[in-house]
Amino acid sequence: MNLAPIAIFTYKRPEHTRRLLSCLLANPEAAHSPVHVYSDGPKTAADAPAVEATREVVRSFDIPHLELTERPRNLGLARNVIDGVSALCAAHGRVIVLEDDLYLSPTFLAFMNQALERYRDTREVMHVSGFMYPVRLPRGTQAVFLPFLSSSGWATWERAWRHFDPEASGYARLAADPRLRRAFDVDGSFYFFHMLELYRQGRADSWAIRWYLSIFMRQGLAVYPAASLVENRGFDADATHSTGIVPPHMRAKAQPFRAGALPDPMIDAEVLRAVTRLLGKEGTFHYKVVNKLRRMWRELTERPVASSPG
Fold first, then answer.
1. Contact at 8 Å (CB) between 193 and 132?
2. What is the DSSP string of 18-73?
3. Residue 124 pLDDT greater than 50, yes or no
4. Looking at residue 246, what is its pLDDT?
5. What is this structure's pTM?
6. DSSP characters over 142-174
């Protein structure tokens, strides 16, 4: 099998990057895969040492087919991802995408390459996810299809990425059509449209919500493994876009799952309902109250304590 190139996006978290590279190299395919690391430049002079330390971590690993791109200035996560994914799709026709806050199963690359090959020419499948939501699936399931994506360890093809709409021009249709907007929010269970509004207001630097909108407007699908091959560990104190509290739908653990023959694209209504119920938990009054209390406690306990005078 011709292995897909891997794009890794880092910033200023050297230990996260070390952990990601360690588990990536536990995948046998990593030794034969082109690996492109895109290291974003520092936002401020204060960030420069951590950025350089992260780059030193990358250089310290014996990665056979490594190309390290050191951004001279800060692009921000979205621009860094869009630029890197676009370049590799243009050069190789497909790409596997990782950020530095992920922990991978040793079977992650096997599934990603298997799915990229299996659905290479299947127009409606636009996204491969390495993550799977923590829901119960029918026995014998190898993969499932959902009409929305997960950005925690993913892959795509040039044929799909060419439809990426960086301007989020589909927003106008959603804003004008409540039924379409509800469908975009997975039958009203999740706040995707709100995330899109935050992006448009300049309050969220998100490539993922624009990629989801691009897929949604073309009625595309994402394929997921039956068990998660990715664990998102980006909800800690160093996270740039996180409150530090792991939401219910992100609590899956990476499993050493190997898929058999992958199925033809078809959404299983029961699986979709299970995931929808899980996503909906974040909109409940109970979850919001508990989440707020946890955030307040974290802010209180992490606040620096002034030393006593004299």
1. no
2. HHHHHHHHTSGGGGGS-EEEEEPPPSSGGGHHHHHHHHHHHHHS--TTEEEEE-SS
3. yes
4. 66
5. 0.88
6. -EEEESS---SSEEEEHHHHTT--TT-TTHHHH
